[in-house]
Structures are given as structure tokens and as C-alpha cells.
Specification:
With 608 residues, the protein is α+β, with helices and mostly antiparallel strands. The chain folds into three domains: 324 residues, Aldolase class I (TIM Barrel, Alpha-Beta Barrel), CATH 3.20.20.70; 85 residues, Immunoglobulin-like (Sandwich), CATH 2.60.40.1180; 124 residues, Jelly Rolls, CATH 2.60.120.260. It is built from twelve helices and 32 strands. Strands 10-9-8-7-3-2-1-11 form an eight-stranded parallel β-sheet. The chain has a six-stranded antiparallel β-sheet with strand order 12-13-14-20-17-18. A five-stranded antiparallel β-sheet has the order 23-26-31-28-29, with no helix packed on it. Helix 5 packs parallel to helix 6 and helix 9 packs parallel to helix 10. The longest helix has 17 residues. The N terminus is likely disordered.
Length: 608
């Protein structure tokens, strides 16, 4: 990404660059003609009955077009797209084209308080104030227009006290007698957030909470329904106490509650999963990855970071649910060539966002959606997967090039997605055994609104490069029965550094770990009645994605990548096809020259 006034930076540098301190000195006041009301709550608070984030939010965000080099998007320089006129134009298009499908948020991203040279504006209390050229009517008027369309308004702020707002430590804090900016930060002016553009707030000093309270009062008074707090750590490319913003998020949680206005708090970006409990406690959603935008001549590209989400989402799956969701970033699938993706990639992108229960907010130009993009964004069956009471899906097969993701729904059906992430066409098979049942199942194609009839034991589809299918599968057969084999059993053989360890999350209180650089675990007495290919369920623990060779009876090995379970205290399962002979078999999990996950157990179906 390119800084607004500096030389080229790496293409995947952070969105964060846009809030770098490009000017030094005291806070800049907005001219009086553009000053805005600072009432405590603005429009009356909504009733508490409408719970925030009961389902993933849907809408539009300004950042993808702001950040792109696509011809015509930013004619007045980098990030110049963000203007009141453009926001209102997208608001009107959202209301006309997407509102009836559930899209409701219009989210204004970074830069609304900065001019086109990125010089910031602040009020006399060190709070961000709209740039009078970008937003001549002010932020309240914009929110009012959004609300008049029956939509919700979102706004953006970075974590911490922006350096330019410090004003030599002499700027007063609204509603806090005697407090100035010197009283809300650390004395050594340590920096914070993902790009060090702010001074770190010291919440051991009461004035710091008062400052956040004043910011919350401002945006609530303008009538905003959503706040994206960006650059939050741990995560966002930084670690250590200086970049730990959990206290900031907690302070915003308190400040928003005190306004009496329900405001959805979304924290960003690429957050540390080790603090998932904090993000869940204090916010309504959290970004799990870097920016999806490519900072190039399109909005995104497959290789830049769209394809990363298949690797990164599984670790977070268990943390998503009503009240807080895993945010995969903007869904830019509606503008064809401007998106920078093939049709197959656009469908796969949308499919993953839907099944992962990510918020569905597009960064496309809604005034020029192509027919295919509009069909992706408005498919009611796919939207229902994302917005209904179905749980988020996760891989049921290893994270190889051909993947199956699934979730069991409350009504007994399954949401099943097939992905071919390879660069060439390939067939992908979802075996009913990997879902836990056998026999027939009815299959409905959600993208094409088509019933595909009953399928015996599996469904197979030929997919293009980066292609996908999305199904609802309704079992007509019976539940599988399994034979379990514990990894720590004395009947097994350990080789290399492999060793038994305690494991409170594991099925029998133990696991086999230290499977690295040749470490092996062999299950020696795996018995089946007849020869065939069995979907062997492997229960494992892995704080990151790790690979292992799986082989039967000393034969040819297949290397599989096991998705992260999120940490080293959580188990996960995937199903691996293993060809077994009738009678007694061995199944070996071999780390090879790398590092394998820790193994809890395997479960072998009693029928192939």
C-alpha cells in the first residue's frame, strides 16, 4: 500500500498507514462553520430488545475503493475516494439494490477527519472532526441521510490518542475537569496500535477513560450505530505490552454503554487469537486476518490475501456466535474486472464468507454491480446460511488443495461446501462418512437453487481452478458406528521423539506429541471386517497448521495439512481417506522432515 504522501511501501503493508502522523504539532481545529453538535446521545437510544450482533452484520464499507489504484476511483490522489458525495451515492445504491436482502450498514472507514494531503482535523477536545472538504455537511448530516434510507451508519477510529491530537499535552478533555491530553497517556509518550500512529492511553489514570467517554459521546451524538476500532493489538503485526489494546477495547465497551445508544463495536485487524476471550467480552466482532485488499489496480486479488482465509479461518471457528463474529474483511465480488477475480473465485470467496458466518459487507461500487456480482450478493439461500441459526462451518477434511467444509445444522441437515483451491481443475468429493452418517442423502445446490436428488455415500463435483459448490445435505441413511483407538495406547509404536503427554482436552486425558523431524506414531491393531477405503477421523491438537504423512500397512504415504485448532489446548478433527485390508492393519502418522500436530486418537468407521 502507498502512504498518502511518501514513497511506495510493500503492497501488503497495513491499512494502518493511512493514519500515520503526517503532520506534527498541536491539534488542528475545524473552522466554526463546520463544528458539529456534541450532545451526549443524539437520537433516542433504540430499545434493548434488538440485541447487537445477533447475526453477522451486512452492508458496505468504503475502504476497498479508497485503497485501490483502479482507474477513476481516486482521481484526486491516494485515498481521495472517501467523500460525502460518494458515501451518499453508495448509501442510495445500497438502499435500492441490497437493503431488501439484509444489507443495512454503511461504514465510513479511515480518513474522514483528514484532508486530501492527510492532514487531520480535531476539535478543541482532541477528538477527530470531519474534514470540511471531504464532508462539508458534517458527520451527523451523513448519518441522518443514511438513517433516512432505513439503514445504519458506521464510522472508524484508530486505537489510542493520535499524535497530532496531543497538542503538547495541553488540550483539555471534555467532561473531565482538570484533565488534559498529558493526563491520559504514558509520560514517556510510548506509541501504540498497528502502525504506531497514536500515543498509548494509560487507563490507570482516570482521565483516560474520560477521553474515550468523550469520543463515544461524540459519535453517538452524531447518530452512529457502528464503530470500527482499528490497529488493535495484540495482533495487527505487533506484540508486547506497548501494543496491548485490550484496555482500550474495554474502555470503549464501557463508554458506548454509558451513551445509552447501541453501537456495534468491531475491532480490527489480524487480532491475536490468544485474546479471543477479550474480543468476545468487549466487542461485537473481530478481524482475524490482514487486509483483503491488494493495494493494486483492482480491489483485491486471489493470491494477495483472499486465499489466505481458508488457512486462517478454521482456528477461529469456535469463537463465533450470536453477539460476536469472526470478521474475514470486505467481500469484493460485485464489480467484475474491478474486483480482480475470476467468476469461480468470486463464488468461492462468497461461499467461504457465508459458511464461516463472517459479516457480509462489500467494498464494491454499488452503482455498477454487474449481473453476476449482484446474483452472488443477493442469493437468498446462501445469505440464509450466513444469517440463520446454522453454526459456522469448518474443514472436515485436511486443508489440502481440495477441501470439504461442513456444519451440522439444528434441523439435522448439513451445510457442505466443496472447494478446489488448486490452480487447475479437479474433482472434490464430500463423503457422508466424514459427516458422521452413511447411506443416502438428498443434496440441494444453493447457488443454483436446484435439488440434485439422493446421493449414495458421497457427492462428487468437478470444479474449476479456485472453484466451489455449496449444498444443503439431508441424511436419509443412518449414523455411522466407529471403533476408537487412543494415541497413547501401549499397543501403538512410537518412533523418534514421539512421546505421550497429559492432555486435559483429549478424550482419555493423554495425547502423543513431539512428532517432529521423523517422529512417528503407529496404530498397530486397527481391525476392519472388509477391505476398502475408510474415512478415518483423526482427533488432534495444533496451535498452527501442520502437516503429516498418513499411511497404512507401510504402503505409500499421503501428506496432509491439518488446520490449526486455535491453540495447544483445543482439539479438532478431520477425516482422512485410508485404504485398509480386511483384518488387522497399521496406520502411521509420520512427521517426515517437518512438524506434525499432536494426536489424541483416531476413529475408524465399522464399514467402508
Amino acid at each position: 500500500m502507498r502512504s498518502p504522501s511518501y514513497s511506495v511501501m510493500p503492497a501488503r503493508a497495513l491499512r494502518a498507514v493511512v493514519v500515520l502522523a503526517l503532520t506534527a504539532g498541536v491539534a488542528t481545529a475545524v473552522p466554526a462553520a463546520h463544528a458539529e453538535t456534541t450532545g451526549p446521545t443524539g437520537t433516542p437510544a433504540r430499545t434493548a430488545a434488538a440485541a447487537l450482533a445477533a447475526k453477522p452484520f451486512m452492508g458496505w464499507s468504503s475502504w476497498s475503493m479508497q485503497s485501490s489504484k483502479y482507474p477513476g476511483l481516486n482521481p484526486d490522489g491516494d485515498y481521495s475516494y472517501l467523500t460525502e458525495a460518494n458515501v451518499l451515492k453508495q448509501t442510495d445504491a445500497l438502499a435500492a439494490k441490497l437493503k431488501n436482502f439484509g444489507y443495512e450498514y454503511v461504514n465510513i472507514d479511515a480518513g474522514w477527519w483528514r484532508d486530501k494531503t492527510w492532514k487531520p482535523g480535531f476539535d478543541r477536545y482532541a477528538r477527530q472532526q470531519a474534514d470540511p472538504v471531504r464532508f462539508p455537511s458534517g458527520m451527523k448530516a451523513v448519518a441522518d441521510h443514511i438513517h433516512a434510507k432505513g439503514l445504519k451508519a458506521g464510522i472508524y477510529l484508530p486505537a489510542g490518542l493520535e499524535k497530532e491530537a496531543y497538542g503538547g499535552g495541553k488540550v483539555p478533555v471534555l467532561g473531565a475537569d482538570g484533565c488534559t491530553t498529558a493526563d491520559i497517556v504514558y509520560g514517556d509518550l510510548r506509541t501504540t496500535n498497528g502502525w504506531d500512529s497514536s500515543y498509548k492511553l494509560d487507563f490507570s489514570r482516570p482521565c483516560a477513560q474520560k477521553y474515550i467517554d468523550s469520543q463515544a459521546q461524540l459519535i453517538a451524538g452524531w447518530g452512529y450505530d457502528f464503530l470500527k476500532l482499528d490497529g488493535v493489538g495484540p495482533g495487527s503485526g505487533k506484540s508486547g505490552d506497548q501494543y496491548d489494546n485490550v484496555a482500550d477495547v474495554a474502555a470503549w465497551h464501557r463508554a458506548i454503554a454509558a451513551t445509552g445508544r447501541p453501537v456495534h463495536l468491531e475491532v480490527s485487524w489480524s487480532l491475536d487469537i490468544g485474546h479471543a476471550a477479550d474480543w468476545k467480552k468487549y466487542s461485537n466482532g473481530w478481524r482475524i486476518d490482514t487486509d483483503v485488499e491488494c493495494y493494486c489496480n483492482t480491489l483485491v486479488s486471489w493470491e494477495n490475501s483472499v486465499d489466505d482465509r481458508w488457512d486462517d479461518a478454521p482456528a477461529w471457528t469456535r469463537h463465533a456466535g450470536p453477539g460476536g463474529w469472526n470478521d474475514l474483511d470486505s467481500l469484493d465480488v460485485g464489480n467484475g474486472d474491478m474486483d480482480g477475480l475470476t467468476k469461480a473465485e468470486r463464488q468461492s470467496y462468497t461461499t467461504l464468507w457465508a459458511i464461516a458466518k463472517s459479516p457480509l459487507y462489500t467494498g464494491d461500487d454499488l452503482t455498477r454491480l454487474d449481473s453476476y456480482g449482484l446474483s452472488l450478493l443477493t442469493n437468498r439461500e446462501v445469505i440464509a446460511v450466513n444469517q440463520g441459526d446454522t453454526p459456522p462451518a469448518r474443514p472436515v477434511t485436511p486443508s489440502d488443495a481440495q477441501q470439504v467444509w461442513a456444519a451440522k445444522n439444528p434441523d439435522g441437515t448439513y451445510t457442505v461446501a466443496l472447494f478446489n483451491l488448486a490452480d487447475a481443475p479437479a474433482a472434490v468429493t464430500a463423503s457422508w462418512a466424514s459427516l458422521g452418517f452413511t447411506g443416502k442423502a438428498a443434496v440441494r445446490d444453493l447457488w443454483n437453487h436446484e435439488n440434485l436428488g439422493n446421493h449414495d455415500n458421497k457427492v462428487t463435483q468437478a470444479l474449476p481452478a479456485h472453484g466451489s459448490r455449496l449444498f444443503t445435505v439431508t441424511p436419509r441413511g443412518g449414523a455411522l458406528t466407529w471403533t476408537g483407538y487412543e494415541a497413547e495406547s501401549a499397543a501403538n509404536t512410537l518412533a523418534g521423539n514421539a512421546s505421550v503427554a497429559d492432555c486435559s482436552a483429549c478424550s482419555d486425558g493423554h495425547k502423543v506429541g513431539n512428532l517432529y523431524l521423523g517422529g512417528k506414531l503407529t496404530f498397530n491393531k486397527v481391525v476392519v471386517d472388509k477391505a476398502g477405503t475408510y474415512q478415518v477421523k483423526v482427533a488432534y491438537i495444533s496451535g498452527d497448521a501442520r502437516s503429516a504423512d498418513v499411511l497404512a500397512n507401510g504402503g505409500g504415504a499421503t501428506r496432509h495439512t491439518f488446520p490449526s485448532t486455535g491453540d495447544w489446548g483445543t482439539t479438532g478433527t478431520v477425516s482422512v481417506p485410508v485404504t485398509l485390508k480386511a483384518g488387522t492393519n497399521t496406520i502411521t502418522i509420520d512427521s517426515g522432515s517437518g512438524y506434525a500436530p499432536d494426536i489424541d486418537r483416531i476413529d475408524v468407521p465399522k464399514s467402508s
